[in-house]
Amino acid sequence: MDVDPTPLAAAPVATFKPFAPLKPKFVAPPSTPEALLSTWTAENSNQGQIIKFLARWPPSRTSFDYGPWIVGNRGGWKNVPIPNIAGLQADFQALIAANNVSIDTVDQISKANNVMTGKWMVFQESGKIDILWGKILFYICTERQKGMAKVSTWKEGEKHVICVYVEDYTDTEAVNSLRKELRKLGVKWKIGFKPDAYTHLNIYKDNPWKIRPSRFNE
């Protein structure tokens, strides 16, 4: 039997485009942007009220169009004077002009202008963020009974981030204590801690002063 030496033409390979991630079914929009900002006290920091707030504003189903953050503020900080952001930024420009930007000098102008708050930053996927945010909000309201935390709303292609605050980023005991509590809540992977002053001064990765944007990574 004669055999055609010419190989059969290869069958076309089917190509499939990856499916775009489906947008979640968003909760109803807020009547005002302030609805995403919650204030907690000894009177309303109970299981029923916290669950009600979490159910109304789950970060995985709250659109960025409603606002960038869902905030829980428990208050209770006694030693936080009004920050002078404009003064901080002006002093930073003076440091730049004098070629004197360093961790120590930024700390000095932060203290001089009362910009001492800082936060642990916890990144999490949308499918896991609601439970983690609930644990952290419960902790802030009922156990720690002071301070503030916020979580970013849903934005396509991005993870959520939860920021949990301390009143003085140079208070390493308070910073480390909060990190231990977050670990108990399930945050066992490495996370970064960033002073708010760094945010206000646009000190991010690959900055010209070679300052690490995260003060601690644990």
From TrEMBL:
One Pfam family this chain carries?
Bles03
Note the superkingdom of the native organism. Answer: Eukaryota
Q: Which InterPro entries match?
A: Bles03 (IPR015034), TIF_eIF4e-like (IPR023398)
* Family recorded in the similarity comment: Belongs to the UPF0696 family.
Protein name (database record): DUF1917-domain-containing protein
Organism field: Pholiota conissans
